[in-house]
Amino acid sequence: MAMHDDEILGKAYDASLMRRLLSYLKPYRTYVVAAIVLNILFAAMGPLRPYLTKIAIDDYIIPGDHTGLMMIIGILFGLLILQGFLQYVMSLVTEWIGQKAIFDLRMQVFKHLQKLSLRFFDKNPIGRLVTRTTNDVESLNDMFSSGVVTIFSDIFVIFWILIFMFFMSWELSLVTLTVLPFLFYATWVFRRKARDAYRQVRKHLARLNAFLQEHISGTIVLQIFSREKKAREQFERINSEYRDAYMHSIFYHAVFYPVVELISAVAIGLIIWYGGGNVVQGALTIGILISFIQYTEMFFRPIRDLAEKYNIMQTAMASSERIFKLLDDTSIIPDPGTSVPLDTVEGEVEYRNVWFAYNSDEYVLRDVSFHVNPGETVALVGATGAGKTSIINLMTRFYDIRKGEILVDGIDIRSVRKADLRNHIAIVLQDVFLFSGDIKNNITLGDDSITMDRVREVCAAVGADKFIERLPNGYDESVKERGATLSVGQKQLLSFARALAVDPKILILDEATSSVDTETEILIQKAIQRLLKGRTSIVIAHRLSTIQRADKIIVMHKGRIREIGKHHELLAQQGIYYRLYQLQYKDQIEAQTNGVVEKNSSL
Amino acid sequence: MDSLYRLKPYFRRHRWLLAAGFVAVLLSNVFEVLVPLIIREAVDGLQEGATMRDFFGYGAMVVGVTALSGIFSFITRQTIIVASRKMEYELRNDFYAHLQTLSISFYNNTTTGDLMAHTTNDINQVRNFLGPGIMYSTSTFIRFVIILAIMLSINPVLTLLALLPLPLISVIVFYIGRIVHKKTIRIQEQFSNITSRAQENLSGIRVIKAFTREQFEIDQFKNLGEEYYRRNMGLIRTQSLTRPVLYLLVGISLIIVLWYGGLSVIDGRMTLGDVTAMMIYLGMLIWPMIAFGWVFNIIQRAAASMGRLNKIFDKQPDIIDGPETDHSIKDLHGNITFKNVSFSYPGAYEPALKNIKLDIPAGKTVGVIGFTGSGKSTLVSLIPRLYDIADGEILIDGKPIKKIPISTLRSHIGYVPQETFLFSESIRENIAFGQNGTEKHLVERVADIAHLSGDVDDFPKKFDTIIGERGITLSGGQKQRASLARALARDPKILILDDAFSAVDTYTEESILSRLRDEIRERTTFLISHRISTVKQADVIIVLDNGVIVERGTHEELVEHGGIYASLHQKQLLEKELDEM
């Protein structure tokens, strides 16, 4: 399986990305400043200790001053407590800032996603968008909390060490620092080698995972074709490549760490050789020499860790680039600059010469015009792909039309705010989408203005109350895994209740085709009648009862309206409707008379 | 902890590499602990008037000893860590090989995601124990013992005083490690809540937009985010406390050394070199102390992971050759008999097939028609023994299929499953699919029959085009035709086409069927379809309804009969008429 853009890593630092990332720290700038100040202070504490040790040795231990030694011990102890405290506060503040910034960013991504149009969702797989809101944001957390901050504090620590060292003896400092170029060089080489090795590891891991994903899903095919052995051999090869890639990175680690130790030993050796000679000649003190040995240890760690920081930064840069790309996407169906208010509507709907295409020029609706009076029901019928779904998608401005106009009460829907328009329309889709939460919430969808009484009322109206009350927790029963525990019919009733609860002027209904038992079928038919009563309704009809009751039937065929009329008129025409009727609806009469319910007509 | 016993054979296989590793760990530590002793000599030499030459000697010794220690530390990593990667490799191979033996009923109840988690995360946890876990625990232990011995020999009282706070470090690291682990799990839970919420929100975006619930969704998401933030802060509070406390304990130890050591130097009971060495040794003990606590956690986690892996390892494959298998059966002709076969899926209330009786002479073609869920796919899946039946018997050439070795049985069957599954390999490999020594022209011949050659010619690398690479994806119809070619390439005695033309347009289907007719003359063929046109010419057509054969006969007979088949036939004529309007 090929790698996709989620795995490509680029540079570890990009000024414009960084600027934009840092802008998320702005609301917390006081704390950021505090964290930096604490950092500088804290960085000085560690290096102060060898210096105090030097004073203890030179000024008190060697001269034999008991009280002086106790004083220095007291200072060291106080320093230790202070250092611990500073470190605690510092870590708390920086991590807190990181968490806050990450929270803000995640909310921004999520809010932005809510605004994007369906056209965007048609193009972008959900999995990838989920990754943007979760993993990508998370990898920025690593950068905010450990990456940037520790790089700063490491620099401060090195800075303080240098100050103390040069203050005590600039000659010995220079001698000690001669090893630095080697350390930098070793780190640099290691970083590059380790990065390449690690990139290989990731590449092979991705291959391994892709292979597993595919071959676990396809195990049965392998078994049917008795091809297990070959797959096993392939897996062993991929697995061994992964192993070998790791072996490479082990090699670099195995070399790097001893080499750093060796360079540090050379530094200590130099201190003993050069420093020892000077101490004997009286040019340096014993304390200075011992403290230099301690400083060498302190100095090496931050430089050695640089390689790791580099990786964190690199991942963060790649993630932020992807996040910003999403945030910069503007496929949003805009609200008009000055909108026409739409407080109340009568429910008159008109499509006037509507042309529509999802992709460039493949029109799925061609010159569609029809008119629905307030309170009327129109039934849309037609074969799969005739354009019925597109007609209802346009009504709520999920998509914008290419040519023509859609009017509600004579007002072009593009001149009102989307939210105002949608407040008057309720949609019942074929696949009932239930959210995790309880039954009540799935009806109100979190709208607090819908009271519990209202919920009971609408559930009773659509006949959903009986089964809900039979549930162990009634309306508080939680809906698991998209309603896995509910039957198809029950889910439909819930979606009817959901629509009825908002009491819309205009109702859009895409009748489900799935088969249900007779009892439920009767419930559903009654519920639909109740639902359609007193409102303008556009229904993609699969039920004979619905069509027969419709004020108008619109027959769609290949993107055009081919016939409009009432049931018996259209039958008499012996055109498309006549055939559709025989194909899809006629059996329902037999079913009704036989008392057997029609099966799903698509086999 | 018991779960880790399963790893014994893996250890045994690499025992020499590991033994070498342990020797290297020992030597590396032995040399490393010499450094403070040399420094001690040097520091004492400062007061006793050593010469420049002496100091050069000490310096050179520090470098030399560190170099030796480094070489052995290199060897340690190259043995123990390498061994751990090898064991990981073998464990993963074994795990995958085991997965392959499990039957479809296992896969129906287990998600690919779970199995992926086992093969990556769990094996990773186990490897963490095999590699760093073992390396650090041995290294730590050895180092601790040596250093303790040296320190005691320098000054027992000071050693005991200085080491007083250190065991606390191990204890704290262990407990904090546990708390951190628990809190981390709670954070991960919340993270997956956020993930599922985002997933759900984006999947239901239509409903949300239609009912203008965006703000509500944002508020809900915000609540989850806030809880995530709270849990993270909980962890941060613990972690922020950890380091200061550890440093405090270490710092106290160092201060004790400086204090007691300093006084002893003043009183002439110790040398300055002794105190310096003690301070350096203490520094060297910090990491082992931290590692002790850490290693305990690693072992616990590895044991939990291994436990999960063992559960799968312990699953016995249920469809295998048994004692009744007759290995002398090498060839099949394809006469298939179903004797009163009934079958229920595990856990289902209703049987999927009821009392099926069928007898198909070798070389004949059976058409199977029926509604969704009527049992068509179940019926044919019993032939290659994807499931075993409890009631009735299936015979091939008069032999019960349980007697036929599975590999023999399956190698005589060409199966085109309802859901096409192709692998990310070249089209050629997908069609030849493990047929060794497959002639080049065979692949091209079957592709031709399946009406795929024309499509393949349009691909840049023809039959060597890798599916899924560089955005080359096959359409549903192309995939089905490739799947058909794959089944034909095996030259099977029994051919099963389970709704193999659902994504192919009627015109193409017609031309494939006409070529197929020659192909299937010698093969027993099952044609499952929802299109009358597909099964029309079959020798016999059966109609399934709710797991029962309700009609059987030839096309003409069934149309005449006026049942389900006839009404379907009628409808499909109408559909055709409509399409032409």
Task: Give a description of the structure.
The complex is a heterodimer of chains A (603) and B (581). Among the domains of chain A are: 11-169 and 315-330, ABC transporter transmembrane region fold, CATH 1.20.1560.10; 170-283; 434-503, P-loop containing nucleotide triphosphate hydrolases (Rossmann fold, 3-Layer(aba) Sandwich). In chain A, 64% of the residues lie in helices and 10% in strands. The relative contact order of chain A is 0.08. In chain A, the strands form 3 sheets. Chain A has a 6-stranded mixed sheet, sandwiched between helices. With 603 residues, chain A is an alpha/beta fold. In chain A, β9, α17 (518-532) and β10 (536-540) form a beta-alpha-beta unit. Chain A is elongated, with a radius of gyration of 36 Å. In chain A, α14 packs across α16 (488-501). The mean pLDDT of chain B is 84. In chain B, a hairpin with a 2-residue loop joins β4 (391-396) and β5. By secondary structure, chain B is α/β, with parallel strands linked by helices. Chain B is elongated. Classes of the chains: A alpha/beta (603), B alpha/beta (581).
Comma- or semicolon-separated keywords:
heterodimer; A: 603 residues; alpha/beta; ABC transporter transmembrane region fold; Rossmann fold; 6-stranded mixed sheet; 12 strands; elongated; disordered N terminus; disordered C terminus; B: 581 residues; 21 helices
Provide the structure class of chain B: alpha/beta
Summarize the biggest pleated sheet of chain A. 6 strands, mixed
Approximate helicity band of chain B: 55-70%
Strand order of the largest sheet of chain B: 6-7-8-3-9-10
**Strand neighbour order, sheet with most strands of chain A:** 6-9-10-3-11-12
Unreliable stretches of chain A (pLDDT < 50, length at least 5) are 1-7, 593-603
The CATH fourth-level homologous superfamily of one domain in chain A: ABC transporter type 1, transmembrane domain
Specify the CATH architecture of one domain in chain B.
Up-down Bundle
The greatest interface between two protein chains, and residues involved on each side, is: A-B, 137 and 143 residues
Number of helices of chain B: 21
Q: Helical region count of chain A? A: 20
CATH topology of one domain in chain B: ABC transporter transmembrane region fold
Please outline the major beta sheet of chain B: 6 strands, mixed
CATH architecture of one domain in chain A, by name, is Up-down Bundle
Overall outline of chain A: elongated
The number of distinct β-strands of chain A equals: 12
State the total count of DSSP E strands of chain B: 10
CATH class of one domain in chain A: Mainly Alpha
